[in-house]
């Protein structure tokens, strides 16, 4: 049994080395290394063998009988020279392996790790090389993975910092709860103050136990359902420590496959206080504000008006104007009202519209109006803010006179007219000025009425045929042709 023991150490430790024939030796060298080189001590390649199992190296037969230095990178030459010098002098190197970079005439490089071996001929050495490209590629991937990991870590820190800053900057009390466990994951200082404990104490505790008379499963499930129901209101509860009535506004989201709840907690008392304060402030502004405010329905019928509007129209009381159309108090009646309501309904608001307001006894005032489209609780209407501008007309310069529904006369147009002074009679200059103003008025009326020719003619006090003639005179006919004829 002992004589059958053929362990590797016994086999190679025999006094006489195993006999290996030339053919077998060549095959062993070919398959044991990716690249085998036979060199003389001067560096000339005597033989080159490429492992057929590694075809990526290609054919290197052209290396034979050439100096190996021609196919090595500059930084690898010193390593080769040290090995060649040692073998020429019969010395033994401390390290019999070198790593070099090869390149050939195709200008491509590949790293090889060689082990250097002596032969029976002292002038000939054998170099067995292992292709390091797979290892280099693996190292490259490892470096890329490490860089990506570091970048992800920095991004994570960046987002975490932003998250912390936002959580502490918001005034609302915010609590992050894990749905599966029902425990508080995170919260800000405002939430800790409202729940009556420190952040460290509350983090990780059951969210349900912070409220009186609540069961964990039912409470968390109710928050999830309230988040998914867009028509439902907030969940009300009473804090256990401070006995504060609060409302919770939950938002459910999924992160890393786990459901989480982001709850905004508001004190019921604070909500009522803010609502009451805002309501009182708006009511005072409505009653005592210097500008007239009128609330109408969708058809322009007055629902409510403040004292400033009653003063402008010389009305005795609200009963005198309620139920009447706002158009009755406008100089151009239904034309003004339609322009205001159509623009406000289309874009939500109309900022400034200049017209004249008629009082109960026929007096007129120049005013600027703005309109806002209202839609709440299923009821639609309009809110109008009216400002008296009659005093401003006294201080306005003639060149800056406002046209109805527009700004001022174009500076460029007026400058062109003034350039005529000295080169044309006054009669011609006045005629040119009239044309400029007339064209601007027509453009403004057409724009305000959304290219409605009938409404524009009524606004300008012209017949439809006269407006058509002027549109053609100023080259504006193509614009009116796109309007809807009424």
What is the gist of this entry?
The protein has 16 helices and 15 strands. It is an alpha+beta fold and 486 residues long. The chain folds into four domains: 17-131, PAS domain (Beta-Lactamase), CATH 3.30.450; 170-271, PAS domain (Beta-Lactamase), CATH 3.30.450; 289-393, Beta-Lactamase (2-Layer Sandwich), CATH 3.30.450.20; 407-480, Arc Repressor Mutant, subunit A (Orthogonal Bundle), CATH 1.10.10.
What does this structure look like?
- Strand 8 and strand 9 form a beta hairpin.
- It is built from 16 helices and 15 strands.
- The protein folds into four domains: 115 residues, PAS domain (Beta-Lactamase), CATH 3.30.450.20; 102 residues, PAS domain (Beta-Lactamase), CATH 3.30.450.20; 105 residues, Beta-Lactamase; 74 residues, Arc Repressor Mutant, subunit A.
- With 486 residues, it is an alpha+beta fold.
- The N terminus and C terminus are likely disordered.
- The termini are far apart.
CATH architecture of the largest domain: 2-Layer Sandwich
Mean pLDDT across all residues, rounded?
Answer: 80
User: What coarse outline follows from CA principal-axis ratios?
Assistant: elongated
Radius of gyration: 47 Å
Contiguous uncertain segments of 5+ residues: 1-8, 395-409, 482-486
Given helix and strand content, the structural type is alpha+beta
Strand content: 15-25%
